[in-house]
């Protein structure tokens, strides 16, 4: 493992909404932590425009999910950008730059370029811009205490798909973390119905695209499909961003 600065992490996962990491890449997050890597999560919005639940309830659900995923206190931040209105504005770019410079990750996981939800596509654009700006000396940013932050540019960025799937460049075997991933999803009781764990609660509001049993069954089938492709039970797929992966030893890939 590479030397890390104090407070730094190896992997920073960035998402548009508080339950996106849990749905798409929680297995990879938990596996990385189990391998000894330090992981932080940055949610761009609080998901406050969701049709079900409230802002407060979603904060409680995120706290519960953090415990299940094993995210240390202070390693999950919410930038408070308005849900449904993620703009590629200088102010928003600087917020993401601040998070990249604070956590100083070697790897960033972030939303793929295209999706049905405009926030996911906007998050992709915002992270690409912030990744570049975070490495520029000319872009000035301060930490929470007002101290100037030094430039930092991660080594790699990998993209994850949402509803619209792109074929992955590589798949992470998450079989050993699949059950805990479902626990993390069930923590979002206002949003998801996880077969065998919780049932869709009509009191939370109208049924949505993501609150039905069918939605979660599809995602489980997707993890199964991706796992099958690599000879595992369950998997999560990623696409490379910014050129091909460097391989030093062909045997490290098998
Ligand atoms: Zn989302």
Can you give a write-up of this model?
The structure is a single chain. This protein has 254 residues and is an alpha/beta fold. It has one domain: Rossmann fold. 34% of the residues lie in helices and 13% in strands. The chain is built from 7 helices and 7 strands; from the N terminus they run βααβαβαβαββααβ. The chain has helices at residues 20-24, 26-34, 55-69, 90-103, 118-134, 178-186, 213-229; strands at residues 11-15, 39-43, 76-78, 107-111, 156-160, 170-173, 235-241. A 7-stranded mixed β-sheet has the order 3-2-1-4-5-7-6, with helices on both faces. Helix 3 packs antiparallel against helix 6 (178-186). The longest helix is centred in the middle third of the chain and has 17 residues, at 118-134. The radius of gyration is 18 Å and the shape is globular. The two termini are 20 Å apart. The relative contact order is 0.17. The structure holds zinc ion. Zinc ion binds at residues 16-17, 20, 117, 120.
């Amino acid at each position: 493992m590479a030397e890390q600065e104090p407070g730094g992490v190896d992997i920073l996962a960035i998402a548009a909404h508080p339950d996106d990491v849990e749905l798409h890449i929680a297995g990879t997050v938990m596996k990385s932590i189990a391998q000894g890597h330090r992981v932080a999560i940055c949610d761009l919005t609080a998901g406050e425009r969701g049709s079900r639940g409230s802002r407060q309830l979603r904060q409680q659900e995120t706290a519960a999910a953090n415990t299940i995923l094993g995210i240390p206190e202070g390693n999950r931040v919410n930038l408070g950008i308005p849900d449904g209105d993620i703009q590629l504005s200088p102010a928003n770019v600087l917020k993401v730059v601040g998070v990249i410079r604070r956590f100083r990750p070697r790897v960033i996981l972030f939303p793929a370029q295209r999706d049905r939800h405009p926030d996911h596509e906007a998050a992709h654009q915002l992270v690409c811009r912030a990744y570049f700006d975070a490495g520029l000396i000319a872009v000035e940013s301060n930490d929470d205490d007002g101290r100037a932050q030094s430039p930092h540019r991660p080594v790699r960025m990998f993209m994850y798909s949402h509803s619209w799937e792109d074929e992955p460049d590589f798949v992470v075997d998450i079989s050993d973390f699949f059950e805990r991933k479902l626990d993390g999803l069930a923590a979002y009781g206002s949003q998801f119905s996880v077969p065998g764990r919780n049932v869709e609660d009509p009191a939370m509001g109208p049924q949505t695209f993501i609150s039905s049993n069918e939605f979660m069954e599809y995602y489980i089938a997707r993890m199964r499909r991706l796992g099958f492709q690599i000879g595992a039970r369950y998997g999560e797929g990623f696409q490379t961003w910014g050129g091909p992966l460097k391989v030093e030893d062909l045997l490290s890939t098998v």
